[in-house]
Amino acid sequence: MRIYTDEIINAICLHIADRKGVQPTDVEAQLSWEEEYGFTAEVWVSGRSQYLIEANLIEAIVQYMYKQYNKRVFPEDITIDAEDDFWADIRE
């Protein structure tokens, strides 16, 4: 299975909203890739920003897959990649 940028962003927003006790619509996220840091996301909640590393992104995808698709996946089953767009391959 493969999910793309929009679903990865949704996963991050839902995950952060749950952790911070806010509505998902109160969370904004932007994905990026840098050679030095790999895949990251900058997340804004209530005007404050924080950076998430790839492990955090994978954690959000794991939770998203369980809550939205009722599928139990493990971090080692997820590979994030990018070319013109971001995507995550999820081994089932």
Automatic annotation (TrEMBL):
This is DUF2653 family protein. It comes from the Bacteria. InterPro entries: Uncharacterised_YxcD. The lineage of its organism: Bacteria, Bacillati, Bacillota, Bacilli, Bacillales. It holds the Pfam family DUF2653.
